[in-house]
Amino acid sequence: MLEWFSNLEFFPKIYWSIALVGSLILVITLILTFIGGDVDDIGDVDTDIESDIGIGFQFITFKNLVGFFTIFGWSGIACIDAGLTKPITIIISIICGLIMMTIMTAMFYYMRKLNDSGTLDFNNAKNAVGEVYLTIGANRSKMGKAHVRIQGALRELEALTDSEIDLKSGTVIKVKDVTDNGILIVEPLNK
């Protein structure tokens, strides 16, 4: 193997070195990811800054650079084996590496957007339409319950009304406001 490598010309030797080192780091990264190791601790440059309120779209990260150099190396080797010229080989391998970085950046960006804190924000219920489940007393005299869709899920929440009449079970309501402790203030939809 060493004899084969030492017999290579300088240009293919560079591409083989980049491809092998990139592939080795990629395999180590994958193994650490699958066994639960924190890959970010081995030199990741995509640390979050407390005051950063950006969208989290980071193009130059450790993982993206590993992907770039791995694909850069292997696509360069493929171009050399196909007999392409050095400038064409360099251009194609850079384009392939950048495409890989773009794919990985988009993948991590959209995966990050998939996370959900699971925290229910009652303010999202404002102006939502729902239905009374347990009778709500007139003029906030008796707390009842209403079914309202919040954050994509149907929820049963405590409710009060400023209406002059009791809101009976089955009445269609609209959420007018939400108190600080999460109690809905509702009104009948068809006044």
Word description of this protein:
The structure is a single chain. The chain is built from four helices and five strands. A hairpin with a 2-residue loop joins strand 2 (144-150) and strand 3. By secondary structure, the chain is an alpha+beta fold. Helix 2 (10-35) packs across helix 3 and helix 3 packs antiparallel against helix 4. It has two domains: 2-113, no CATH class; 122-188, Beta Barrel (OB fold (Dihydrolipoamide Acetyltransferase, E2P)), CATH 2.40.50.140.
Enumerate the spans where pLDDT stays under 50 for 5 or more consecutive residues: 43-55
Strand content: 15-25%
* Total domain units: 2
Instruction: Count helical runs.
Output: 4
- The side-by-side strand order for the widest beta sheet comes to 1-2-3-5-4
Helix content: 40-55%
Largest sheet: 5 strands, mixed, barrel
The shape is rod-shaped
Amino- and carboxy-terminal Cα gap: 85 Å
Order of helices and strands: HHHHEEEEE
Mean pLDDT over the residues: 85
What would you call the structural class? alpha+beta
Number of strands: 5
From the alpha carbons, calculate the radius of gyration and give it in angstroms.
Answer: 30 Å
The gist of it:
The protein is α+β, with helices and mostly antiparallel strands and 191 residues long. The chain has four helices and five strands, in the order ααααβββββ.
Can you lay out the helices and strands and say which pair or pack?
Layout: H1 2-6, H2 10-35, H3 62-81, H4 86-113, E1 129-134, E2 144-150, E3 153-161, E4 172-178, E5 184-188
Parallel strand pairs: 3-5
Antiparallel strand pairs: 1-2, 1-4, 2-3, 4-5
Helix pairs in contact: 2-3, 3-4
